Structure formats: C-alpha cells, structure tokens
Amino acid sequence: MRDLSAGPRVLLRRLRELMAEPLDPQERLDRIVRQIASNMVAEVCSVYVLRSDGVLELYATEGLNPEAVHLSQLKMGQGLVGTIAASAQSLNLSDAQAHPAFRYLPETGEEIYHSFLGVPILRAGRTLGVLVVQNKASRTYREDEVEALETTAMVIAEMIATGELKKITKPGLELDLTRAITIAGDGYNEGIGLGHVVLHEPRVVVTNLLNEDAESEVRRLAEALGSLRISIDDMLSRRDVATEGEHREVLETFRMFAHDQGWVRRMEEVIHNGLTAEAAVEKVQSDTKARMMRLTDPYLRERMHDFDDLANRLLRQLTGYSGRAMGEGLPTDAIIFARAMGAAELLDYPRDHLRGLVLEDGAVTSHVVIVARAMGIPVVGQAAGAVALAENGDTVIIDGDDGQLHLRPMADLVKAYEEKVRLRARRQEQFRALRDVEPLTKDGKRISLMMNAGLMVDLPQLAESGADGIGLFRTELQFMIASTMPKLEEQEAFYRNVIRQAAGRPVTFRALDIGGDKVVSYFRNHEEENPALGWRAIRLSLDRPGLLRTQLRALLRASADSELKMMLPMVTEVAEIHAVRELLQKEVQHLSKFGHSLPRRLQFGAMLEVPALMWQLDELMAEVDFVSVGSNDLFQFSMAADRGNARVSDRFDMLGKPFLRILRDIVRAAERNQTALTLCGEMAGKPLSAMALLGIGFRAVSMAPTSIGPVKAMLLSLNVDELAQELHAALDDKRSQEPIRTLLTRFAEEHGIAV
Ligand code: PEP
Ligand code: MG
C-alpha cells in the first residue's frame, strides 16, 4: 500500500494551522496556495471558486499574474478548469496545451506551464470550485500527489462552506453554495412558512481530518464496517423482512456496498494518505456521489441514495454521532427536510418549533402528511433534490399553496412573502371570527362541521376551530408514536382524557387502523406485496381479538356514564360488523359482571372505504347507527390508485363523475335507510370539494381543524338547493364532456362563493 510521503502530510498539518489562524479570508487563501505550491514543488497553485452564475472565478494564485485574481473567469465546462468542475473529476496532464479543452487566458500568463494537475473542490458530491497546480517542466504528477491535492481540496471546501469567502466576493455576486434555488414540488398542505432548514437526517460534519497513525485508523474503519455489516445482516435475517419487496432490496444493496472490496480499499488508501477514518469515508463518499449524480438512469440514481445512506451510517458509527436534529438547538422556525418520513418521526419534533415540512417523496394522503396537516404546518412533497441542495441552517421559504420551495431566497422575495404571510394571517383572523357563527347555508341548512384528530395536541383545536365535535379520532396514532404496545390502562386513560377535553362535544373513536402505510414498529407483521390490500385494520383486529378486545374494553371504560361513539375501519363485509359486535357484547357483559359502569348510550358505526360495501349498503345500514365515508381509501380502491403514490393518485379527479356518483349512491342509501351519514377523508377539507359534497346531499363532514374556517366561509355563502339542481343534472347527463370541477368552479364564481 502506498504511503503518503512526509511532504503532503506536513502540508495538511500546515493547512490545518492556517485554517485556525485569525486571518482575513483573502490572506488565508493566499497563504494556502503559497503553502501548497511550495510543498508540492509547483510553480503555480490556484483556487477557482464556482459562483452562482455558473462562472469559475480565480480567487487566489501563487505563480500566475496576481492581477488576474478576481478577474480571470471560466464558465462551467469551459477550459480545463471548467471541465474539471463539470465532470467533478481530476485532470492530470503533462502537456496541458495539447488537451482539446485547454483555453489560454492571456491575463494569467500561464502559457509557459506545461504540466497541469487540477482537482474538483467537492462537498457532499457538489462541486464548489477547482484547485490547480502547474509546473513549467513536462511531468505527470504521481498518484499520491493527486491524492494529496484532492485531500487539500477538502480543507478548502470546508472554508467555502463556512461562508468565509462571502467577504471577498464582489458585491452583487454570490457563490454557488449559497445560490438562491427554487424547487418546484407539489403542495400537500397549504400555508406559507419562513424559517431555517433542519435536515431530518443531518449530515455528519467531519472536523477531524488528519490522522496521527494510519494503522490505527484502518483498524477503526474495519471495526466500524464490521458492526455495520452485522447490523445489516441482523435487519435482513429478521423474520418480518420477506423474501421480496422494496425494503429487502434496499437492504441487499446495503449489504452489497458494505462488502464491496473496492469501496473499502479506496477508503484504506485515503487513510494511508493521512486522513482519519471518518474523513476517508467522507472523501470517498463525496467522490462517488459526484460521479453518480451525473448518471441519468433512475435505478442507479436510486442506488446512489442507498450508497449515501450507508456511508452516512458508517460516518455515524465512526463519530458516535447519533443525534437527530430535534434535540437542543432546534431553531424555533424549523422547516424539516427529509427524503421520506414516518408520521411518528414528525411527532417527535416539538410542534411550536415547526414551520414546514419538505419531502422528496410522499403523497398528499400519506400518513405523515395527514399528521402535518393536523398540526397545521405547510407541506411540499415531491421536492426533487431538496435534501442534497439544502444545508442545515439555510434560510428557506416553503410555499404550500404553490408547491414551491425557495432555498436561500433573495431579500426581495423574502419581503414579498412576508407580505403574503400578513395577508394570510388577516384571512385566518377572518376565519377565527367565524368560529362562533352557526354553520348554516344561505338557504338555511345546518351543516355539521367536525374535525379529525388523533393526538392530545389536537384537542385544543376543538374549541379554537369551533368544530361541532370530532368526526374521526384516529386511535392508531397513539400506537404509532409509542415504543411498546399501549396497555389497557394507558389506552383507557388516553380516551378518558380525550373525552374530558372534548367537554361534551361528541367524539367518534375509530377502532385501530394499523397495517398498510400505518406502521407500528413493535407489532411484527409480515412484509406484504400489496400492504394497502393486505392484512390491516379490521382484518387484523379480528385475527388478533385480544388486541381488539383490549381496545373495546378501554373505550367502554373511558365512556362510563357518557356516550360512546365508535366506528370500524376498512369494513368489507357486513359479517365483520357482526363479529365485532359479538366481541363488544362480551366486553359489556364482562364489565357489568365486575360492577363497572357502562356508557349511557352506544353509537356503533362503520367506515365506508372498500367498494364492495357499495353492493351491501342496505344490509350495512340496517346494522349500524351511522356510516362515515373514508374518501381517502374509497377513492384509492375505486380508482385502483395508490393514495401514497403521487404519480397515480393525482391522475384521477375526486370531483370527477365516477367518484361523485359513488358518493351520491351512498347518500341516497342513507336517506332510504334513515342512517346518519358523514364523510371524514381529506376531501371534506377543501372548500370546493366540500361544496360538491353538500351539493350531492352530505350534511355532516369531518376535516383537519385548519379547514373548518375556510369550509364554513364557503357554506355560509352557498345556496345548497341551487347547487344541487345543477350538480344532479350534470351527474345524470351521460353526454356532457364538461368536467364537474369546471361546473363547480363556475358556480362558485357566479355566486360569489368563497372557495
Ligand atoms: C380515509 O381513508 O379517508 C380515512 C379517513 O382514513 P385514513 O385516512 O386514516 O385511512
Ligand atoms: Mg382509511
């Protein structure tokens, strides 16, 4: 194995000293290039820094004409320097002028130098600049010299990343790293947030670059790799990781990388060149990422994410860094950036510090988004590349209305958004003023407006929003945030607390709806090919009657001497309702036998989420006191479009004829059977959709608390009978091509309805 000769080691050490000295940035950079030149016995050493306009500007030089500093410029891809920046790869040339990309810059006086070695200055795979050494004599630089220069570039990357060079950047210009970027995604929850980036999985910052003893660093690396491999094997051998499926594929990729000899050898080489184990991991990660970022194959790019995740795990092993960003020091205006995230992870952040959520993946009805909506924070999903482009602490604006992100925004944009925020606040004020206004339509129909909830933190919103009650209490959220299965007493105490805080307003508890995308970590179920169609919700509860009976008992006990309103999720056959009723009966008997008080009244309902129930509506309604349509799931199953997959879920319109006709059939069946009916999916929270629901006959809807104000404003200005006439006619019309959404928008406009 090659060993870094003493010279470069001395250089790295000297550079570290220079970084620590109290120098002004230009002076520091000048000394750095001087040091490199002398150490590498090069006549020239220059640093080019990438600006936000895509230009590489000469920031310091030893050997070239000093007048050229801050004057000499090359575009990305132009000349040797631009080629290195664009490809993120080093160039080692014994005759630079002979290279096809060579471009002569007269102001620098570089024509006399034949040999050229240039390396990219990289950080997390992004090019920040280029570092060059040149010699008059024609020579090829040795491999260890290339390595040494690349390592030196890491030190300069750190200097650029700290923002130090801002002070010597010409006014009006910016460095690429701090460039303002707008990312277009999808607005998953409306609202505007101004704040600072918090990376959900923060990058480990390696500060300890240079090793004292290469052999002990190689050993540290081997140990960390060993534990990493064991943890991957453990994950793979767990019984819940099935033989197929995406999760397994990712783990297999992890294992492949973790055993990849090429990767390990590269890191060991870098350690022998003077770096610590963690600096070696970072360097090789950055080089690899820089190469992979230039790939267009989506499969390989996905593998790059996997590799990146794995390298981050290794870095955490080596540095003992385990902290998520939510601990101390979380900014009070945090905008969380994640590739993907579970609902429980979001709940770990203190609500009053959150100003927004940015996801690279996700979909509008995925669980984490529902939780974010309940918390009232703006969400932008499908924000491609957001995590790689953002740095912890960057300023950012999240615009959930337009589905955009503005990273490191310019001052005038911030101003414009501050104005927008003020306007929104004024609108919120107007909604708040509606809080105690009775939700009566213009033609006098009383609409029941309820809110969805699932956690204690949601409860204060009941009074604040003026909702009539809780139309959907997602009991699984308590299970999702717990690290072990909540016991009977814990469940009972929780439900009791909810009922107490609801202060007399009705609460509809939904029996556990786990499975599908609602993952409960301690509840091991088998990986399924199609979890949404799998063993979930009531199916799972009926197969695990102990679980269901505990919940039923807790609900009964918590509602002693008051009313218990509960419903079942994902019912497919009426027989399932009978089965639960039987268990409920047993629990009632059990409690009375032991002298417990029982609820004064019990209302038992079912959610309508599975299309098969459409052909059992009369039987269903004969069995239950009320039906609640879960439009998120009913839509996903009716359209055969995964609610968590934006590519397909946004393809079909909830306000299209098929879905509205389905919903209308349900309304008609409820009228026929005189069964109370409500709808509690996300659809109810959008004023235009809520208007359509009232138009086809719904009189009770349940939604995120922040939607109550806008929906109430809509209905106060709506004449339902007028809309119903037009809407029914359009739904009955088999020839008209006009989308119902267009009709609804036009109706709202013509009648001055606030949607
Ligand atoms: C629904 O499916 O519409 C619903 C309200 O339930 P969840 O979103 O919790 O699946
Ligand atoms: Mg559902």
What's the mean pLDDT score? 89
Radius of gyration: 31 Å
Distance between the termini: 70 Å
Supply the number of helical segments: 27
The amount of beta strand, in percent, is 15-25%
Strand order of the largest sheet: 7-14-13-9-10-11-12-8
Bound molecules: phosphoenolpyruvate, magnesium ion
Helix percent band: 40-55%
Shape: elongated
| Structure class | alpha/beta
What profile does the largest beta sheet have?
8 strands, mixed
Total number of β-strand segments?
Answer: 22
**Which residue ranges are poorly predicted, with pLDDT under 50 across at least 5 consecutive positions?**
239-246
Note the topology:
Layout: H1 6-20, H2 25-39, E1 44-50, E2 55-62, E3 73-75, H3 79-87, E4 91-93, E5 115-123, E6 126-135, H4 143-161, E7 181-184, E8 186-189, E9 192-199, H5 214-237, H6 246-258, H7 261-272, H8 277-292, H9 298-319, E10 334-338, H10 343-347, E11 354-359, H11 367-375, E12 379-381, H12 386-389, E13 395-399, E14 404-407, H13 411-433, E15 448-453, H14 460-465, E16 470-474, H15 476-481, H16 488-502, E17 507-510, H17 537-543, H18 545-558, E18 563-568, H19 574-593, E19 601-608, H20 617-623, E20 626-629, H21 631-639, H22 646-649, H23 657-673, E21 676-679, H24 687-696, E22 700-703, H25 705-716, H26 720-732, H27 740-750
Parallel strand pairs: 9-10, 10-11, 11-12, 15-16, 15-22, 16-17, 17-18, 18-19, 19-20, 20-21
Antiparallel strand pairs: 1-2, 1-6, 2-3, 4-5, 5-6, 7-14, 8-12, 9-13, 13-14
Magnesium ion (MG) binds at residues 569, 609, 630, 632-633.
